[in-house]
Amino acid sequence: MLSKEKILQVVAANQPEFVPLPEMNHGCLIEYSDLCAQFKTASENVGATVQRINDIQVLKEELKKEAEAGRFIINTIAGLGTINKQATLLPAARLNQLEKVYIKGTIGVAENAAVWVPESNMLNRLLPFIAEHLVLLLEKKNIVTTLHEAYQRIDISTAGFGVFIAGPSKTADIEQSLVTGAHGARSTKVYILE
Amino acid sequence: MKTTHAALAEKFIANTAQTDWHDRTLWLVRQKRDKAVHTLPEWEILREWASQIKNHTLSQLSEYLSEFEQKAKANGIVVHWAADAEEHNRIIYKIIRKHNIQNIVKSKSMLTEECQLNKYLEQKGIEVVDTDLGERIVQLRKEPPSHIVLPAIHLKKQEVSETFHRYLKTEKGNHDPQYLTEAARQHLRTKFIESQLAITGVNFAVAETGGFVICTNEGNADMGAHIAAVHIACMGIEKIIPKARHLAVFLRLLARSATGQPITTYSSHFQQPGPGQELHIVIVDNGRSKHLGRKDFRNSLKCIRCAACFNTCPVYRKSGGYSYHSSITGPLGAILNPNTDMKASADLPFASTLCGSCSHVCPVKIDIHEQLWKWRQVIVAEGYVSRKKKTGMKIISFVLSRPSFYRFSGKAGRWIMRTFPFLLKNKLNPWFHSREMPEAPKQSFRDWYLKHKP
After folding, report:
1. Residue B209: what are its φ and ψ, rounded to 5°?
2. Are A174 and B52 in contact (CB < 8 Å)?
3. Residue range B45-72: average pLDDT?
4. Which of A20, B118, B390, B421 lies in the 20 to 30 Å Cα band around B397?
5. How far apart are CA A92 and CA B225, in angstroms?
6. Do B178 and A179 touch (CB under 8 A)?
7. Per-residue pLDDT reduced to its tens digit, B35-49
8. Residues B262, B155 share a domain
9. Mean pLDDT of B187-213
10. Does residue B310 share a domain with residue B173?
11. Which domain range does residue B403 map to?
């Protein structure tokens, strides 16, 4: 542990005099008249699609249809039907063929389209990334204005892993041309349940 | 090989069309940043909060580092400390040896670039596959990244196409970015699935929770970290922030400043190792603790690596990343590198117009252009400037501090320019290399003013 002590010793000797943390008064933050509409606009700007639904039945039927067509789909949302726990634990080489995954997000952020997905919702950390297409379900009442509000509502220390997802995987590393589907999901669709 | 920014820039600008493209494209990124910034009325307040949080953190850094280690360990994370690049590389090599690991994927980490990890492991016969698309492109070409956020920004799609045709067997002459990206996706999927170890960087490490956050658009950090049995995250000591709620401030600033996006596609919060996985963190000093002691320069440890200062810099845009001959390029590299190797980086603080644009876009309010100016003074005082520059400056200083001699020199100079123009219009005069000499006026402004003064 020689390096640790050495580093901490030099840091302690060299760090400047105490500077206090800023008072962060949230009164100055942006507000939107319609959170849901703003979330939809922000989502479309980052390449996601949004569909507002009044009834979970729409999703149940979509899922049923896909299962009947013999597609490799994983559902992790209890409210949509049975969860095939075994499927979520398949090795990466097999999950590589996963066409679509359904996951519930707990918070949506209107300013930037980010949806918070804790590990307990995704069941397997790899699922939202390895699936070709990602479907997120979000309850309208869980849309907040900014990230500040989001972090007030979530406790990141309770999940072993959690992720904000805003849109599909993308890159612009070749001549700044935007291409979706770099390594993660090629598309992200968010269903907002009224 | 001793090369300076000026000499390397000369090489870069030899291709005028590509230089113009580089300049325009990065300016476009700067404009995207502006557009994103203007959607938030609280932008300047956010910058101020971020700056103050970082100032506070630096003032309590040893305490926060200790808190972070303790919490991370409680989360089941193995914490290592590395005094320098060599120790960082050795720690990682030891983990590789312990598990007899063959297949390694790495997502973008400027720290591992700084430590030259790939080269170190290569010398031991171990291959690391870079998985960020831009980094994979430059890795295949055996080049370093030229920009910390856009590693392959110096390349045109035709060049990428040639590289992919050679290594990934893509169609010759097909340089559609969509097609090339798809080829990289397929190629790297195989690497992810085979991977036994994922190496990543860290964007923010939270002292309060002992967890850390990684931001990517591609999802490559997650593909690696969630498949491999072992994940090693490497971070500099300055990546610490005190509280989870502070992430809101930094995540709101980071992507908007970097690319004009409201947030990166993935902001992944790692708190504990995944089921059956091993999670390591390597906390690296490599000169940072010493830097913290330099009052005039410690401010640069606040950096969150958004590269807004690169995209706005007129010198960077027109000279390219490679002109900075170091792993961290651009204005940021110009203020960080002299701290670790002043002699090798002595030219970098001079590669600036001191226009101040960098400081104005910096999301954590680093006084970049002032530091550039201050480094120049330190470098001159330490004797690291060329004799030519030093002598020139001495002569100018001598002339400018003697008003009557200055007036005499002006008169003599104008006379020489008119009478013997070839004395200045020749190869020995560096000013004349790419510029015309001005017409010498008959009288100075001072003489004119004295005549016309009311």
Report:
1. -110, -20
2. no
3. 98
4. B421
5. 12
6. yes
7. 999 999 999 999 999
8. yes
9. 98
10. no
11. 388-452
The Cα–Cα gap between B102 and B196 comes to 7
Say whether residue B262 is in contact with chain A using an 8 A CB cutoff: yes
Same domain? For B323 and B394 the reply is no
Give per-residue pLDDT as tens, A8-52.
Answer: 999 999 999 999 999 999 999 999 999 999 999 999 999 999 999
Number of domains in chain B: 3
- What is the rounded average pLDDT of the residues A102-116? 98
Same structural domain, B356 and B420? no
The mean pLDDT of B208-230, rounded to a whole number, is 98
The reply to whether residue B42 touches residue A16, judged by beta carbons under 8 angstroms, is no
B293 part of contact set with chain A, CB < 8 Å: yes
* CATH at A122: 3.40.50.10420
φ/ψ (deg, to 5) at A7:
-60, -50
Average the pLDDT over B190-197 and give the result: 97
Residue B103, Cβ density class (10 Å: 0-12 exposed, 13-18 middle, ≥19 buried) = middle
The answer to whether position B297 is within a domain reads no
Q: Helical H runs in B303-454?
A: 308-312, 314-319, 330-340, 357-361, 368-381, 387-400, 403-419, 445-452
Residues B212 and B333 in one domain: no
DSSP B12: H
Tens of pLDDT, residue by residue over B138-154, are 999 999 999 999 999 99
Question: Does residue B265 sit in the same domain as residue B338?
Answer: no
* Chain A residues whose beta carbon lies within 8 Å of the beta carbon of residue B39: 30
What is the extent of the structural domain holding A51?
A: 31-193
Looking at B381, B414, B436, the residue that finishes a domain is B381
How many interchain CB pairs under 8 A, A with B? 254
pLDDT at A111 over 50: yes
DSSP-assigned letters across all residues of B227-288: HSSEEEEEEEGGGEES-TTHHHHHHHHHHHHHTS-SS-SEEEEE-SPPTT-EEEEEEE-TTH
Of B362, B381, B400, the one marking the end of a domain is B381
Q: Output the average pLDDT for chain B.
A: 95
- B265–A111 CB contact, under 8 Å: no
pLDDT band at B20 (very low <50, low <70, confident <90, very high): very high
| pLDDT of B429 higher than 60 | yes
Do B346 and B218 share a structural domain?
no
Q: Do A10 and B268 touch (CB under 8 A)?
A: no
> CB-CB: which of A28, A112, A161 is closest to B45?
A28
**Nearest-CA distance B234 → chain A (Å):** 15
- Return d(Cα B111, Cα B207) in angstroms, integer: 20
CATH at residue B45:
3.40.50.10420
Confidence of residue B1 (pLDDT cuts 50, 70, 90): very low
One DSSP character per residue, A36-88 reads: HHHHHHHHHHTT-EEEEES-THHHHHHHHHHHHTT--EEE--GGGS---HHHH
Residues B246 and B311 in one domain: no
pLDDT of B2 over the 70 cut: no
pLDDT band at A1 (very low <50, low <70, confident <90, very high): low
